[in-house]
Amino acid sequence: MLDIHFAQIFIALIVLLFSLTVHETAHAWTANRLGDPTARLLGRISFNPLVHADPIGTIVFPLIAAISGAPLIGWAKPVPVSVGRLGHPRRDYMLVAAAGPASNLVLALVAAIALRLVTVTPVTLGEPNISAPVASLLSQLRQLNVLLAVFNMIPIPPLDGGNVLIGLLPRSMAGAVNLIRPYGFMLLYALMLTGTLGVLVGPPYAFITSWLP
Asked: Which of 19, 41, 73, 126 sits at 20 to 30 Å (Cα–Cα) from 55?
């Protein structure tokens, strides 16, 4: 049983790493399209996970989440954005922030459609079965990407939701919210360890999942 458990965690971490890579690449690509080539020049428009991996958000936080029973979520190394180089700084920075969660929702939708198209054959002892592992992988991809999208839209900077909120608020209120930024990850750890994170993520996760095929 322990071997199966660890195998499932390992597969989930691989899916998470791939999903985070797509997430950060979407940030970098969007920023480049909107006039800021900073991330592109640093090689961040890439599907190489090593370019985006963050020791804390990509490894430590997901492992703690797995051990504590919290949703398996995390983050990668933030994509640098020179706001002054964007055509419309406040609006465009908000679009760059939203691009990451949007890419995760697209991945979840693609995985859900593919999962509907896969014919899963019964598992027979001693006979190879590819359809079952593929279906399991697609299910993980669907689930984790919805979780990532919802998690990243929590309105706490430096998460994407916090950056979107700052772009929507008047400048005076946006400045006040931005003061939270240095303590954002401490707040996230507190939410996770107290179980509040699951309460915040659960309802929107269930709502989005109910709309997927």
From this structure: 41
